[in-house]
Write a structure and sequence with these properties.
- It is a single chain.
- Strand 3 (about 55-60) and strand 4 form a beta hairpin.
- The chain is globular, with a radius of gyration of 17 Å.
- Strands 5, 6, 7, 8 and 9 form a five-stranded antiparallel β-sheet that branches. Strands 1-2-3-4 form a four-stranded antiparallel β-sheet.
- It is α+β, with helices and mostly antiparallel strands and about 180 residues long.
- It is about 20% helix and about 30% strand.
- The mean pLDDT is about 90.
- The termini are far apart.
Length: about 180
């Protein structure tokens, strides 16, 4: 079986188990290697997928060895694929953008060009930062959640942090942003 098909099966099974669905109830994009899906999100051997079923929309990553879903809150494989503990780590913005992508289309990573809902922008709000300390790392970033039921409403800001241990255990914590 190809790496893609194995990853697709693992992702489908993980989403079905996490959300109480049958695999046959899920439509997963991309369904095959021939179709361009979320290529810009792929990282190392992790392939980006999106599963839908009615109102349910789940984004995540899968490889032969791992599945990363926001609901499970275990981002270790994503940080390992990004070499987050190495000197040549993927830039913090690239890692944070993949996490925000997984959280859903109503979320946007705060970058220097983002229109923040408060003006002036609070001084501590800035681009993502990956701090390394003694074989561990911490990713700090801000993101905005838009209420799709209220078009035009200001987004809700969140501060986010992922602490990555030396063995690549990584969990996301969020709090209302400044």
């Amino acid at each position: 079986m190809s790496a893609f098909k194995d990853s697709l099966q693992k992702f489908t099974a993980a989403v079905a188990a996490a959300y109480g669905k049958k695999p046959s109830e899920l439509q997963v994009t991309p369904p095959s290697e021939d179709i361009v899906g979320f290529d810009d999100e792929n990282l190392g051997d992790l392939i980006a997928f999106q599963a839908t079923s009615g109102e349910l929309k789940v984004r995540g990553f899968a490889s032969k060895a791992a599945v990363v879903l926001a609901r499970s809150n275990e981002y270790g494989p994503l940080f390992q694929a990004a070499h987050a503990l190495d000197a040549k780590a993927l830039p913090a913005t690239d890692i944070a953008s993949r996490i925000v992508w997984m959280l859903g289309p109503e979320n946007n990573l705060v970058t220097p060009t983002t229109r923040y809902p408060k003006y002036p922008v609070p001084p501590k709000v800035g681009p993502p930062v990956l701090d390394h300390q003694g074989g561990r790392a911490t990713l700090h970033f801000y993101y905005l959640t838009f209420d799709t039921r209220m078009p035009g409403a200001p987004p809700t800001p969140f501060a986010a942090e992922v602490q990555v241990s030396a063995d690549y255990k990584a969990q996301l914590t969020t709090s209302p942003g400044p």
